UniProtKB/TrEMBL annotation:
Residue ranges annotated for the NAD(P)-binding domain, each copy included: 4-312
Cofactor dependence: NAD(+)
Source organism of this protein record: Koribacter versatilis (strain Ellin345)
Protein name stated in the entry: UDP-glucuronate decarboxylase
Keyword Transmembrane appears in the UniProt entry: yes
Keyword Lyase attached: yes
Amino acid sequence: MKALITGGAGFIGSHLAEKLLSRGDEVHIIDDLSTGTIANIQHLKSSPLFHYHIDTITNQRLMTELVDLCDITYHLAAAVGVRLIVESPVRTMETNIRGTEIVLALAERKRKRVLITSTSEVYGKREHIPFREDDDLIMGPTSKGRWSYACSKAIDEFLAIAYWKEKKVPTVIVRLFNTVGPRQTGRYGMVIPNLVTQALTGEDMTVFGDGLQARCFTHVSDSVNSIVQIAAHPNANGEVYNIGTQEEITILDLARRIKLLTDSDSKIVFVPYEKAYEEGFEDMMRRVPDLTKAHKLIGYRPRVALDETLRSIIEDIRLRLLYQRTPEPIST
Ligand code: UDP
């Protein structure tokens, strides 16, 4: 099997590449290193099955070659991270929508399979827990940058479903809920790498808002394993699947847990949202996936519990700090 991963030098993309290589696939990645890094794929470069292209997915000539060459495209290239999205809404929408259009249009020529990674952000301000794939999506106003990300990913989903329904391109969508793990960076605002880096370097641990907002954090191995299985399933075309865990924790408890596991003297401090992001920033209080659909399709169950996930991230960031490869925690 030959696979193309867009955004393959990113956090999730590099884990997916590793997984596909380990089962003997030939893997081609394309990444413009806007948020991905060479360090993420350094250990894969020696494999004869691994090929990387540092380029943008808007390079139509290269993308035509790669999509034609491969049996499947895993489309992960996207603007990610709430901080990046709030700061660069134009780049967010252009990258997400144009990138997906290009991938789908090229896949159509030879009816190649495409898996699109989406996000639990598309549920927007929905409060009724757990979120099911066919639930209504509740967006905020267009004046608030965060919703442009949610809407751009929702458009990606509409596009992928339309290409299946209208043009018979075999597409499938996976909505990922807070995927975390080794190699994730805190540079774009993700909470766990930020808090762990702060705890390990003795800086204040920044909890935004009152810390009572909760999330379910999914280990990247659970996300990647399910992506591969869903992509290969013959009955998944044109469908959307939630992937995540139902183990919920408030951000304040998360900070306390990380402080304990790292044996840190850092202080936990509260930072108002308007200082952390922008005036009028809206956060979601809870975000829990209904996993019935993925369970029915592939028997999906998350395998890695939160404490084990946190330990793997702490170990990774400890090592990166030692080799000075980790970015600075965000300043607020
Ligand atoms: N958050 C926080 N401190 C940080 C970074 C994030 O308290 O240093 C909060 C953030 O406001 C959100 C939660 O942690 O409520 C998860 O943030 P993340 O950006 O990781 O994911 P998302 O907001 O997409 O769920």
